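Quick illustration for those who missed Monday's session on complexes.
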Amino acid sequence: MDVQFAKRVAMMDSSVVRETLKLTARPDIISFAGGMPAPEVFPVEPLRAAADKVLRTAGRTALQYGLSDGVASLREKIAARHRAAGMPCQAEDVLMINGSQQGLDLASRLFLNPGDLVACENPTYMAALSVFRGYECDLLPIDTDEEGMVLEDLERKLAANPRVRLIYVIPTFQNPTGKTWSAARRKGLLALAERYRLPVLEDNPYGDLRYEGEDVAPLRALDTSGIVTYMGSFSKILSPGIRLGWMVAAPEVLEKLITAKQSTDVQASTFIQMMVDTYLADNDLEENIRSLRALYGKRRDLMISAMKESFPKAARWVRPRGGLFLWVSLPDGMDTTALLPRAVEEKVAYIPGRSFYAGEDVDNTLRLNYSNATEEQIVTGIRRLGRVLCSHLG
Ligand code: PMP
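Prediction with 4'-deoxy-4'-aminopyridoxal-5'-phosphate bound:
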């Protein structure tokens, strides 16, 4: 059949993600490609007990439609956690969503018209790029360095591009680079966004996964004028399969987000929200996070020491202080997309950096995930990858 799709369908590019997921599924391949948590530390029993308790004590409420903004007591727990970390936040500032991926979509509906520009870090989270492109928007890539977005570059580009309608950032343990913005850059970004009257979308799924150093306040905690819309997620601190995240925004923005949420899927699952609410009441989430930090910190260290041993001397990376990813740069002229089939022959996989760039293609970078592989797989996989990279560097 000759199907006539809408124009925006041509802008949706999911092929890289699809291929990646295919690789991850092959049992003989050690995959550092995805961004998945370690399944062995999912709190299966506590969540089972919470689900059981919800169905036993409030089954008829749990199985019913609920409010679009979410379950009140869960929103209050999330707000209280933000307040404890220095972000002013009340339950009514929180909207429950199906993972922060949905937040990208809802925010795009609110802020973007076809032809608008989204300023973003370059490189950035590739699935966010597909959402913005799906809304027929173009990306405005901003240079980054060790401290975050280069503000001079941002300012120059904002001044030259009146079509910019949104700034999208992942300021803490960024995907894919693992970088964390300094406090000064965060304040500088807010000042610029205010000057240009641009909303900022802050995506923070990794902020809790810090392995060393001091916490840096999220943009939303520094925002005095309500321009920051914040997205949090249970995916990396509890489970991604439950598909539960949240947004924190100014009242007039949240109201519109709730309307958008209603028209998309009415609400996040009442049952899942109540299960998580009960889990949070009966267990110590911070304890779960502490054990994730210990485990992932160890895996990060192991991956880095394996890379030091077997990667070519010309390979470069920044030691991430948290999050799930190591970002590797190879000498100019190396093409990590072309090398991937060779790596797969050696039974190891990564994501070529190219798909994370909003601007021109860059071929000599790659992203490695260290949370999902066992220690043994990390050692073996990095040795295999080292062999592939070394054989191509002469
Ligand atoms: N934003 C970023 C930066 C991510 O890395 C991810 C997932 N890897 C998401 C959003 C989506 O996460 P979820 O929908 O599971 O909360």
